[in-house]
């Protein structure tokens, strides 16, 4: 049966384009940012999200569940070993080309721009910049991710499953 709601439209592959964040770690490590890809599958009203990225040249897959909150476009992520849950809000998307997500943990907000394909249009970038400003972040707190080197496959030994069953 087809899934009701936005989850079905949000399914598929997304590439991480940029992150707006006041996180100091990100600022210090921004030159080491790796191409990152999301694979999203609806699971009821929740989203099963796999993040693919490289660590020391090896592709890893991290599986997480964005839980339904009952509010469309709002999800809750209880990361493994994290003290605080992450509130995930789909701030803006056309489902076809781009998605802007707000992630909030313990009053700290970050803004992520994902695209179905690269490069993204100037109009999408300006919408993202506007959302970054709304989050009280500045341009020098925006980090762009590599446009190449995405993981194609992951072997079974490099899957981190954070989905609590």
UniProtKB/TrEMBL annotation:
Pfam families: Lipocalin. Keywords: Disulfide bond, Secreted, Signal. The keyword 4Fe-4S does not apply. It is found in: Secreted. Gene3D superfamilies: 2.40.128.20. Residues 11-147 form the Lipocalin/cytosolic fatty-acid binding domain. Residues 1-22 form the signal peptide. InterPro entries: A1-microglobln (IPR002968), C8G (IPR043245), Calycin (IPR012674), Lipocln_cytosolic_FA-bd_dom (IPR000566). One of its GO terms (molecular function) is complement binding. SUPFAM superfamilies: Lipocalins. GO terms for biological process: complement activation. GO terms for cellular component: blood microparticle; extracellular exosome; membrane attack complex. This is Complement component 8, gamma polypeptide.
């Amino acid at each position: 049966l087809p899934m009701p709601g936005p989850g079905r439209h949000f399914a598929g592959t997304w590439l991480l384009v940029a992150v707006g964040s006041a996180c100091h770690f990100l600022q210090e490590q921004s030159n080491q940012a790796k191409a990152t890809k999301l694979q999203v599958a609806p699971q009821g009203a929740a989203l099963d999200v796999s993040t693919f990225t490289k660590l020391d040249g090896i592709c890893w897959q991290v599986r997480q569940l964005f839980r339904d909150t009952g509010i469309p476009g709002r999800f809750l992520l209880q990361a493994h070993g994290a003290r605080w849950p992450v509130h995930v809000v789909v701030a803006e998307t056309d489902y076809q080309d781009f998605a802007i997500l707000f992630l909030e943990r313990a009053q700290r907000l970050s803004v992520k721009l994902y695209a179905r394909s690269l490069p993204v249009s100037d109009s999408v970038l300006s919408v993202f910049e506007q959302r970054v400003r709304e989050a009280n972040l500045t341009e020098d707190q925006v980090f762009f991710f590599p446009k190449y080197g995405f993981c194609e496959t992951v072997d079974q030994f490099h899957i981190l499953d954070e989905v609590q069953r």
